[in-house]
Structure formats: C-alpha cells, structure tokens
DNA sequence: CCGTCCCGCCATTCG
DNA sequence: CGAATGGCGGGACGG
C-alpha cells in the first residue's frame, strides 16, 4: 500500500504483523552495560542479542556489533522512553499487539537529535539485512515498509539508499523497490572505485590541495579558493555530457550528487596515502570537479553538508570513521578509512571502457519487467557462487540489455572490456573474510606522514600484516584491451558521468560469474571523434606512476608531485575529450569554459554567467602555476 | 559561538 | 497529473 508517503509517513505505523523487526529500532532494551558487550553478548537478558534471530535473516556478528555500538554511545539514550511503559513492552515482545498508537506517537516526538541522526537510522536499516545476503531468500527492500518500520520520512531513506546504491550494496529494481546485496559486491566495487580514483588523479589533486593549504598558511593571502584544481585539472573539462541534441539526457542535473558524490568521496580514501580525508579537501575536490567556476562559499557549505550525510552512512557501514587532522590551521574534521584495504586485484574486476555518447541518464533506471526477471534469476550471487553458470541466461540478459541500450544510447558505442577475470575468487573471499573478521579498523602500515598528524581518537590500532592473500599483483590495472562486447552485461548499471569527471566507475553486478564489471563511462562530448579511442596504455601508465608515493612525496611541491607530470598531459581519461585537455593546458578556466560552452550552448551560458560573477572575485588571470612545464 | 546535520520545501522525474 | 525522487539550504541542536 503506498499510502501517503510524505510527512504523515512517519506517523503511520506498520500495522502489519509481518516479520517486523521491532527490536532493531529499539535495541536499546535498557542500556545494559556500556559497550563492552560486544564480545560478551551480554548474558543478561539483553534482548539486544536477540535481534539477530528475529528478523529471520542470517545476522552477521558485525551487524550486531554495529547495533550495540551505535546504541551504546549516546548516553543520552536514556530515552525518556523508559518512563513510558508502552515502550518497554515494545522492546521485548514487539509485534504482539502493540498498536498502541498513542504510545508511539509520543515516543517519536522527543528523540534527541542524535537519535534521529542519519547514522543511527542507517544502523537500524542495516540491522535488518545480513551483510551477505542469502540468495535463497528474498532480499527485496520496499521503501515504504522500511520507512514505516523505521518511522522516518521517506526522504531519509532515500539518502541512505543512494549511498548504498553507490556502493552497490543495493540496487534499484523498480519504483519503490530495491534489492539488497549487502557487502557481497563491496570489495569489487571498491576496487573499481579505487581505479577510478586513480584515473581521476585524485591522489595528486589531494596532494596539491594540501600543499596549497600549507603554502597559504605561510603567506596568508587568503582568497582565490580552489583554483588549484583548475590549475592542474585538465581532466576538468567539465561540461555536462549531454550532447546538445539529446535534450532528455541533457537534463541530467539529476544524476548528480549523492550517488556520484558518494563514489567520489570513497575514491578519495582509496587513493590517499594515509587513508584520511578531510572534509575540506574532499569538498574542494568534488566541487572543483563539478562546476568549473561558481561562487564558492555557499556552494562549499552545501557540499560539506552533503558530505556529512554521506559520511554518516559510510560510518554506519564502518567504512570510515571520524577523526581529526591537525594540519595547518588547527583541527579539521576528517574521516579515516576503516574499510577493507586489500581489494580484489584488478583482475577480478573487469574493466570496460565505454564510449557512449549517451546513456540513459537514469542509470539505475527501473528495468523493464523483463529485465527484472532476468535480474532476479541472477541475483543469487551471494557469497559462494562460482559453480553453475548459465550461459544461456547470461546471454539472454545481455540481449535484453542490448535492446535496452539501443533504445537510448548512441549507436556507436562499442564497449571494450578487458577479459581476464580468472581467479579473483580467492582474493575476493579473502576480502570478505577479513571484513567479517571485523575488528575492522584495518590499518595499513601507512607511510609515516609528517604533516597529517592524525590523531586517531579511539582507534584500535592493529596492523593487519596478515592478509597474505593479497593479490599477488598490486594495484596495477593491467588493462589489456580485449574482448568486445556488443552490449552491456546484464544488470549493468551506469552513471552518467558527472559533469566533469570524465569517468565514473560503475560496477556491473554480474552475479552468476561472481565478478563484476567496472564500467568507465565516458560521456560523449558533442560528437565523439570516431577515431579516438580509449588508450588503454594511458591507464597503465597512470596507475604505475601512482602507487603509494611513499612518505617523502608528500612534501614535494605540487610541481614535483610524483605522477603529476607524467599524467598531466594525457591524463584525461576520456579520449574524446582528449583534444581538450591534450593541449598545453594553458591557464585553465577561461578556455575550458569556452569549450564547454561550445559543446553545450545552454550550459555554456550558465557557466558563462557564473564565470562572470566569479571573475570579479578573483583576478582574472592567475599565473598558471602549472606543474608541468 | 560553531560544528553538525535534521527537516522538509519544492524542483524533477517517473509512471 | 499525481506520486516518487532527491536537490538543497535554513536554522536548530548540542557541545
């Protein structure tokens, strides 16, 4: 029943006697002992423990942990509720009756801010599903139900879903319906994101930004904001992908934010040396990438706000944790990566380079019913698949995809994907095991870095020396151009590349095989030059240069930044855009804008306007302190 | 005072 | 056209 979703949503209850997972929300059950119960599973009653059973889903130790932790922290959690008898009974017996409409009403009214936080909400949400879904059972997620059961407005659920979706932990099936994948694909997704991050040279950008901050610190000439990236950002060529012609796609204002932002944010972690990213840096980079110029300030603020949202759910996933970096100007909020470090080697992930002039802007658009069917068939990946592959099914799916694509994508867009898959299994499993081992906080013996004095608050340091399984080959994406697939693999998901980042990694859930494909979609410029082709070589080169630039590198001036020069010139991932960035990248903005303009009139105007506004602010021409040359 | 970030208006996009 | 999504930023909460 779709009942009125909005506002009232929160109000209504889930009358349903279904398998509601009542306690989850409360879990609380009286604050029992503080945290430590983690291990102890608190013998004393602690209904908390109970939760795992209830939902009927296989609970992973982690999920419980999560719940406990989240629950424990806020001392505030005294939840006035204790007082109200209703609640109490609610805790234990849950479902039974409990329509105490009134009771609940009152309850939700006074929840401390923390109790209403997105992070906690996310925890509740995650608690309802196993980290590694059992393909056998249905992993459907109905937004309405979730919203109701968690007593929150739909809007909030969207926030969560969006970032989960960006990590491929869920995928949209249709309106109002998602499928839960849990962490099954996480490793692969992360691997893909890492790669994408490398290709975007986020590592360099971050270093440069940091350096810049440092410099600035001395000579407090405070203004000229994030020009930095422009300076180096060749790959910037920000401009919306939509070809002028394709009006529909064009409007893609949409596929902006959250999902994309989330992926980019994660990328930053995966490419930064100490896996710490400050909000400030992240915001700057993400902004810079988006629109070339624009009045910062408010833009920046907003970006930060969004990042907090994303960070909150990532925290719930235990992929990151809040910390503080005591860089230059005092402490700044930052986040530390606590997710898996040993991602599946590139081989596990097939990379496909797609030069699509346009893809449906709605990546995860709801599939046709037929699609759904096939999808479901495949949806079994779970943890251990590997055997039984149904080629026929795969083909079917492919063909479907194909059709789909034909409809809304440019004719000329061959997809190249490196074949190679092979092993992967081991690495993947290893990753999974590790994650499950929990005790997360994996600390890679990071290179000591002077500047980032990260004071990891309560971090449980624990260097993970083990993980021998780490793929033999480091992170070198040996992307050998290979097979040509006429169509997108089943379940392909793709994002319309954000305005500027030329590549957006996308994982294609490819259940049956157990590996997925990462897609790097290049948006097509006005008209992709046919001859131009994604030079696989560049990829290789790029990644080579990167790999952990050891400690010292941090100190290097931007100009000397490791891969910097090398990548600089032809780093632009998008071949089609190549020409744009290929040129000596003379001062950035102006020329860039122009280009953008040409490719997209409308957009051009906008940019133009912005530029104008902006222009006044900063000196029109900044001495391009170009690294290269 | 300020770092966080909830809340929900309202523009978009979907069906 | 109404419902589903999801930008976005005012301004409240908590330290």
Automatic annotation (TrEMBL):
GO terms for biological process: lymphangiogenesis; motor neuron axon guidance; negative regulation of DNA-templated transcription; positive regulation of transcription by RNA polymerase II; sprouting angiogenesis. Keywords: Activator, Cell cycle, DNA-binding, Nucleus, Repressor, Transcription, Transcription regulation. Residues 113-182, 253-339 form the E2F/DP family winged-helix DNA-binding domain. Residues 76-92 have a biased composition (Basic and acidic residues). The keyword DNA-binding applies. The keyword Ribosomal protein does not apply. Residues 1-62, 75-109, 219-238, 525-629 are annotated as: Disordered. It comes from the Eukaryota. Residues 527-537 have a biased composition (Pro residues). Residues 219-231 have a biased composition (Acidic residues). GO terms for cellular component: RNA polymerase II transcription regulator complex. Its main location: nucleus. It is found in: Nucleus. GO terms for molecular function: DNA-binding transcription factor activity, RNA polymerase II-specific; RNA polymerase II cis-regulatory region sequence-specific DNA binding. Signal peptide: none annotated. Residues 558-569 have a biased composition (Low complexity). Belongs to the E2F/DP family. Atypical E2F transcription factor that participates in various processes such as angiogenesis and polyploidization of specialized cells. Mainly acts as a transcription repressor that binds DNA independently of DP proteins and specifically recognizes the E2 recognition site 5'-TTTC[CG]CGC-3'. Directly represses transcription of classical E2F transcription factors such as e2f1. Acts as a regulator of S-phase by recognizing and binding the E2-related site 5'-TTCCCGCC-3' and mediating repression of G1/S-regulated genes. This is Transcription factor E2F8. It comes from Astyanax mexicanus (Blind cave fish). The lineage of its organism: Eukaryota, Metazoa, Chordata, Craniata, Vertebrata. The chain holds residues 15 to 643 of 898 of the full protein.
């Amino acid at each position: 029943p779709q009942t009125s979703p909005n506002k009232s949503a929160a109000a209504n209850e889930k009358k349903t006697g279904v398998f509601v997972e009542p306690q989850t929300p409360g879990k609380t059950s009286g604050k029992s002992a503080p945290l430590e119960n983690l291990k102890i599973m608190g013998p004393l009653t602690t209904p908390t423990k109970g939760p795992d059973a209830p939902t009927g889903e296989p609970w992973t130790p982690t999920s419980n942990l999560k719940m406990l932790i989240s629950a424990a922290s806020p001392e505030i959690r005294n939840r006035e509720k204790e007082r109200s008898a209703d609640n109490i009974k609610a805790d234990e017996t849950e479902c039974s009756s409990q329509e105490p409409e009134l009771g609940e009403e009152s309850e939700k009214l006074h929840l401390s801010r923390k109790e209403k936080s997105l992070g906690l909400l996310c925890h509740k949400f995650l608690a309802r599903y196993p980290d590694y879904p059992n393909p056998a059972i249905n992993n459907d997620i109905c937004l309405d139900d979730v919203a109701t059961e968690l007593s929150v407005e739909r809007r909030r659920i969207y926030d969560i879903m969006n970032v989960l979706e960006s990590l491929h932990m869920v995928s949209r099936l249709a309106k109002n319906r998602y499928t839960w994948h849990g962490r099954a694909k996480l490793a692969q997704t992360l691997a893909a994101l890492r790669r994408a991050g490398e290709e975007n040279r986020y590592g360099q950008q971050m270093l440069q930004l940091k350096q810049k901050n440092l410099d600035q610190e001395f000579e407090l000439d405070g203004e000229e904001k994030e020009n930095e990236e422009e300076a180096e950002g060749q790959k910037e060529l920000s401009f919306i992908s939509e070809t002028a012609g394709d009006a529909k796609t064009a409007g893609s204002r949409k596929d902006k934010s959250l999902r994309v932002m989330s992926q980019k944010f994660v990328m930053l972690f995966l490419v930064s040396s100490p896996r710490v990213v400050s909000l400030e840096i992240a915001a700057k980079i993400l902004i810079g990438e988006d629109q070339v110029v624009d009045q910062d300030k408010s833009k920046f603020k907003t970006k930060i706000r969004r990042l907090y949202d994303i960070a909150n759910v990532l925290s719930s996933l235990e992929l990151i944790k809040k910390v503080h970096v005591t860089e230059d100007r005092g402490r700044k909020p930052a986040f530390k990566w606590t997710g898996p470090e040993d991602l599946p080697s590139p081989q596990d992930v097939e990379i496909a380079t797609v030069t699509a002039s346009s893809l449906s802007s709605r990546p995860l658009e709801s599939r046709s019913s037929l699609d759904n069917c096939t999808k479901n068939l495949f949806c079994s990946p779970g943890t251990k698949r590997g055997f039984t592959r149904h080629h026929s099914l795969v083909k079917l799916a492919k063909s479907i995809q194909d059709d789909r694509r034909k409809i809304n994508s440019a004719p000329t867009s061959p997809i190249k994907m490196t074949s190679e898959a092979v092993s992967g299994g081991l690495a993947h499993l290893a990753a999974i095991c590790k994650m499950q081992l929990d005790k997360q906080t994996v600390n890679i013996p990071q290179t000591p870095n002077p500047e980032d004095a990260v004071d990891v608050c309560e971090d449980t340091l624990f260097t993970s020396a083990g993980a021998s399984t780490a793929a033999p080959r480091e992170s070198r994406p040996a992307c050998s151009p290979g097979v040509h697939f006429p169509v997108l693999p089943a379940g392909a998901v793709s994002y319309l590349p954000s305005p500027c980042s030329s590549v957006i990694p996308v994982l294609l859930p490819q259940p049956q095989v157990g590996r997925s494909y990462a897609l790097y979609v290049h948006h097509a410029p006005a008209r992709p030059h046919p001859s131009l082709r994604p030079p696989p070589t560049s990829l290789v080169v790029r990644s080579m240069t990167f790999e952990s630039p050891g400690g010292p590198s941090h100190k290097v001036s931007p100009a000397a930044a490791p891969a910097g020069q090398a990548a600089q010139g032809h780093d632009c991932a998008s071949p089609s855009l190549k020409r744009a960035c290929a040129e000596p990248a003379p001062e950035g903005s102006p020329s860039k804008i122009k280009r953008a303009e040409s490719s997209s009139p409308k957009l051009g105007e906008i940019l133009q306007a912005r530029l104008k506004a902006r222009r006044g602010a900063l000196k029109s021409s900044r001495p391009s302190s170009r690294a290269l040359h």
